[in-house]
Write a sequence for this structure.
């Protein structure tokens, strides 16, 4: 039997858009720029776009043979899906909610730390997404452990989401234009000319 060749579009921009848009909306809440009542908008977005769309992007990255993209999108898709359930069940944690959410965020920060090192081999924009995401997770973990405000984590999260949306936009626009319209920058490990 002859093998049917298929051409897959790059799932990266979809995954980055799902991650970026959801991160921006949640970060607006964490930074206290919008009311906590916005959580009613964040949760469906987290489940559908941040969660399932990224999970699909991750599966397509597996198909393309991109271990980094597959691991990142599948994992952060699972993060958003688990976040949906965590927030819906936070009341069941009682007085341990801050500590429980702190551990959850801390471990996602640890995961993001080693993914940040992997992103050094991609491009500067993606590296910045992972750098700011790592900072966001650690700052939000500290805020949850200490019972302090999430404003700083929210502001850094807002930067993270905007960087992810820029990187997604570059993928879509550059592919559509068949040229570099929005630069992504060289890998931080590539020598500069």
């Amino acid at each position: 039997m002859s093998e049917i060749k298929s051409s897959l579009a790059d799932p990266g921009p979809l995954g980055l858009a799902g991650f970026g848009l959801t991160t921006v909306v949640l970060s607006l809440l964490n930074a206290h720029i919008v009311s906590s009542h916005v959580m009613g908008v964040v949760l469906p977005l987290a489940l559908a776009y941040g969660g399932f769309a990224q999970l699909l992007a991750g599966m397509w990255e597996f198909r393309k043979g991109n271990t980094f993209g597959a691991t990142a999108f599948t994992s952060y898709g699972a993060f958003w899906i688990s976040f949906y359930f965590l927030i819906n069940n936070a009341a069941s944690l009682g007085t341990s909610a801050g500590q429980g959410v702190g551990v959850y965020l801390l471990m996602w920060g640890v995961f993001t730390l080693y993914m940040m090192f992997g992103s050094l081999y991609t491009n500067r924009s993606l590296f910045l997404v992972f750098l700011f995401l790592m900072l966001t997770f650690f700052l939000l973990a500290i805020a949850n452990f200490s019972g302090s405000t999430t404003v700083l984590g929210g502001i850094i999260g807002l930067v993270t989401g905007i960087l992810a949306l820029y990187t997604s936009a570059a993928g879509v626009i550059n592919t559509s234009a068949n040229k570099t319209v929005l630069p992504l920058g060289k890998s931080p490990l590539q020598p500069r000319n």
Notes: Residues 12-169 form one domain.
